[in-house]
Amino acid sequence: MSGSSSATDMKKVVQQLRLEAGLHHVKVSQAPADLKQFCLQNAQHDPLLTGVSSCTNPCRPQVCSFLSSNEFLGFSQITFNYPMSIEKKN
Questions:
Q1: Which DSSP string do the residues of 22-78 spell out, in sequence order?
Q2: Largest CB tally within 10 Å, which of 15, 20, 46, 70?
């Protein structure tokens, strides 16, 4: 039984080696130059370099407003900004 298990394992190893032999390999000395070129070509699309407009930013602070239904608190409008802070608007 261990012989068939060993043969199966060897077939898997051979299959993996064949797969890896067909891959395109890049020299270690060439990889940084390729990476730099890629970064320079795509810099205009990188939001970390170009910034994100406030209307499309998914991480902008969320605002929730309660209008005059909260007049019992003495405010005409309460705005909650997250993280939690309260602004009083009269």
A1: TSPP--TTTHHHHHHHHHHHTGGG-HHHH---TTT-TTSPPEEEE-GGGGGGT-SEE
A2: 70
Burial class (CB in 10 A: 0-12, 13-18, 19+), 43: exposed
What was the pLDDT predicted at 50?
86
Preceding amide of 83 cis, omega within 30: yes
pLDDT higher for 85 or 44?
44
Tell me how far apart the alpha carbons of residues 10 and 83 are, in angstroms, rounded to a whole number: 57
- Do both 3 and 41 map to the same domain? yes
Domain count, the chain: 2
Residues 6 or more apart whose Cβ sits within 8 Å of residue 34? 26
**Boundaries of domain holding 69:** 58-90
pTM recorded for the entire structure: 0.40
Confidence at residue 70, expressed as pLDDT on a 0 to 100 scale:
47
